[in-house]
Amino acid sequence: MADLETREETFSIVELPLGVRLSLRLAPALAAKLGRVAGFPLDLPVNRSGGADGRLAARVSPDEWLLFAQTRRPADLADEVAAALDGVFHSLVDVSHRDRAIAVAGRGAREVLNGGCPLDLDDRAFPAGAVTRTIFGKVAILLWRPDAAPDFRVECRRSQTPYVLDFLREVGREF
């Protein structure tokens, strides 16, 4: 955990605890019809996210959602989602082992992220609930802005987490 603070900007870079990540593939028409599954909203536009009660869904393509929850039992959550989709053609894969999450939060978060990410992270271009696949330095990431706060979540492959953390901290030193 590294909190960095300067005169004008305050931000933090924190590796988040492990949680459950499920990859759901489902026909878009079925998602619109179902609306919610096991507490996860599916009726989201592409590159948008939403959720409540510790369950977050990110629609990353027309037929793909990443489902997140802070629980220690991935199998239980996967069983709950699968049961809610019983009889519906879908693919559900536990990818919890694959990625790690890093929170970049605070007033200077945009500037720190833009040190390695080419996206416009202004509120108008990347509003609350936005999520997209992009790059950070040399690494493919999922960048997510869960709410209206200037806070972002970076999902990257587990093996690339040290690189991303070091890059973020190095950029943060400039501020």
Give structural notes.
There is one protein chain. This protein has 175 residues and is of the alpha+beta class. It folds into 2 domains: 83 residues, Probable tRNA modification gtpase trme, domain 1 (Gyrase A, domain 2), CATH 3.30.1360; 75 residues, Alpha-Beta Plaits (2-Layer Sandwich). The chain has 4 helices and 13 strands. Strands 1-2-10-13-12-11 form a 6-stranded antiparallel beta sheet. The protein has a 5-stranded antiparallel beta sheet with strand order 6-7-8-3-9. Strands 4-5 form a two-stranded antiparallel sheet. A hairpin with a 6-residue loop joins strand 12 and strand 13. The longest helix has 13 residues. It is globular, with a radius of gyration of 16 Å.
Briefly characterize the structure.
With 175 residues, the protein is of the alpha+beta class.
Second rung of CATH, namely the architecture of the largest domain:
2-Layer Sandwich
- Reported by name, the CATH topology of the largest domain is Gyrase A, domain 2
Question: How much of the residues is beta strand, in percent?
Answer: 35-45%
Give the SSE string: EEEHEEEEEHEEHEEEH
Structural class by SSE content: alpha+beta
Strand segment count: 13
How would the global form be characterised? globular
* Total domain count: 2
**Percentage of helical residues?**
10-25%
